[in-house]
Amino acid sequence: MINKLGITCLVRCALSAVIITVVLGCDKTEQNKISISSPDNNIILEFDNSNFNMAYSIIHKNDTLISNANLGFEFKNIPSLKSNLEIKDFQVTEANETWEQPWGQNRLVRDHHKRLLVHLEEKESLRKLSLEFKVFNDGVGFRYLVPEQEKIDSVNIMNELTEFAFTKEHEAWHIPAFFHGKYEQYYKKSKLGAIETAETPITIKTLNGKFISLHEAALVDYSSMALKTTQAGTLKSELYAWQDGVKVKLKTPFKTPWRTIQIGDKPGDLIESNLIINLNEPNKLGDVSWVNPMKYIGIWWGIHIGNWTWNPGPNVGATTENTKKYIDFAAKYGFDEVLVEGWNEGFEEDWHSDWGPNQNFTKPHDRYDLRGLQDYAMSKDVTIQAYNETCANTTNFLNQIDDAFKLYEDLGYKSVKVGHVNRILDTKEFHHSQYGVSYFNKVVEKGAQYHLAINFHEAIKPTGLRRTYPNLVARESARGQEFNAWGENGGNPPEHLTILPFTRLLGGPMDFTPGIFQIDIPQQEHNQVNTTLCKQLALYVVIYSPIQMAADLIENYEKRLDAFQFIRDVPVNWETTKILDAQIGDYIVTARKDINSEDWFLGAITDAHSRTLEITLDFLEAGTYEAQIYRDSDAADYAQNPMAYIIESQDVSNTDVLKIKLARSGGLAIRFKKK
Fold it and tell me: Are strands 472-475 and 453-456 parallel, antiparallel or unpaired?
């Protein structure tokens, strides 16, 4: 049993909430098991050191999800740190506060959890290790803390022994790990035991119909965690290694990223969870009013479909003339930025295969007027978005980053898209290794130094660092829109977009680049965008990002200004987000409230099957709304008739139910405008 030696309380205000801290002492001779519950008592975390071997279990509503999962480390040249450990002390505290995001899916975020901090020591060598657990109503996060000590000065971690030992053989949606160092794959659904390796987030549906996501939070100066099956139902941490085989190189004191287990009764509970961002440190940048959620267009899709090139030849897209056309369009229709890819010197014929040694991030090619175009854009209340294609040559990029970012700040740029085409960094290190993690975070810090928002492509997965560094506005880190232009199998399959919200997007915003209006691609005989036009509209609500691109050619929008109106109207920053209905891989219905008005927006998408859904509008406030509806027509079909859509309006209230029909790979987009 645990003997409670004392209780103290600390109370302070945080917005409208109160933090209450309760510290419990312990009987140091009988501390073999420690249990704490979530604030609502639905989740129990049990730390078990009965045999001097660290393990943990998680019970949700009397259902044991994870049982006796092992913990610990294996090092190079020194003994492992996993057994023969005694609990020397522990503390249990409770916190309850509400904090405000500068941008996000929800303006206000509640952080209500109980915290267990366990201090352990080896019986003979006296090496010290602490474990920190936080139990929320929507899941558990835990991490290792290694304090400064005589017995350990520095470590080379060869293996992190963290397990997620499930009690049953559930099914999961995942992508394999160590696949050319990239996340740009299709998600597979399979039994846990059939998974060899998996990237996180991995999403699990239990035999009892519950939903779990395994991921990590606050990934800083450590290797990205993948997962490997060790036995049926058990997944173990598998870290990406340096070129020399070492997984992580650290000096004491250090702390690992949080290992996270989000738990929900419904698929949408995982999306509505704030566990990942709550486990990250608060904003370190101070005033971030210079970070602005925005919509942009750009010289991009035309390159992917073959109209233009990145190479500075006769068909280069990044010309002064083309860019002025896009600036004029942005100014006319209310877009904030114009992305221009291929503007700088260094895009030789083989730029993507030779690691771009000649990429120059301050010098434009001779058909692009760098300063003149930005002056022209700013005269129309628009700005250029910088594009830096590093070609995964981080050495070349970091050697130029101060000069480049200082130039962009002086020009009045607000954001930079930073690409990393190539499967490894600097021809030797994984994107997801400790080297890669540190590199990406350094770029974010440099961006903050020069007041630039960062949008990473071909990058590591998000882990909630947008809370700590709000200028980290988006990442790609998944199979995006461009694969529809030239990818194998004719483009992304219809179910791809009904899986992403429950997997990759649980980590954070994605720059998916929606909004393609010409569904077929004449330049690519075997490819098309495997959606209806209305599904492209719905993605602006379903796929969250504080930056959203209208990705198609501007002339395609001018042909369909009626449908384009939704892209103009839809916000990128939200007061509240609700998942109204969803089944992973089948469909999702998302509603979000605009942060700057009383309006709500709704997006619904489906897979390759048509379906009829009933949507209860009880998320709306009292009063009357004009529902501006963009829907598939009855004849719409992503393969045969993707452009068939209907725009209509009707008055609704929060007592109404809308019955909607989605075409195959179709969608629905609605603006609820408060009257």
Answer: parallel
pTM: 0.95
Q: For residue 437, how many other CB atoms are within 10 A of its CB?
A: 23
Residue span of the structural domain in which 613 resides:
497-503+531-549+558-675
**Residue 212: inside a domain, yes or no?**
yes
C-alpha to C-alpha distance for 279 and 162, rounded to whole angstroms:
18
Active site annotation includes 598: no
Amino acid at 626: E
Strand residue runs (E) in 275-315: 294-299
Is residue 472 within 8 Å of residue 454, measured between CB atoms?
A: yes
> What is the per-residue pLDDT across 486-536, written as a single tens digit (0 to 9) for each?
998 899 999 999 999 999 999 999 999 999 999 999 888 889 999 999 999
Into how many domains does the chain fold? 3
From the candidates 46, 216, 341, 482, give the one annotated as an active-site residue.
Answer: 482
Domain boundary among 278, 305, 339: 278
> What's the longest Cα–Cα distance across the chain?
79
Task: Write out the H or E segment, with its range, that includes residue 225.
Answer: strand 225-231
The strand pairing partners of 202, in sequence order, are 214
The C-alpha atoms of residue 16 and residue 23 are separated, in whole angstroms, by 23
Q: What is the CATH number of the domain that holds 107?
A: 2.70.98.10
Contacts 24+ apart (CB under 8 A), 133-137: 133/36, 133/45, 133/47, 133/56, 134/258, 134/279, 135/36, 135/37, 135/38, 135/43, 135/44, 135/45, 136/38, 136/39, 136/43, 136/112, 136/275, 136/278, 137/38, 137/39, 137/40, 137/42, 137/43, 137/112
Is residue 611, in this structure, part of any structural domain at all? Answer: yes
Cα-based distances in Å from 445 to 38, 306, 637, 641: 35, 35, 46, 47
| pLDDT, tens only, 161-214 | 999 999 999 999 999 999 876 899 999 999 999 999 999 999 999 999 999 999
The verdict on 243 and 332 lying in the same domain is no
Judge if 180 and 234 occupy the same domain. yes
| Calpha distance 339→653 (Å, rounded) | 40
The helix/strand/coil state of 224 is coil
**Cis upstream peptide for 176 (omega within 30°):** no
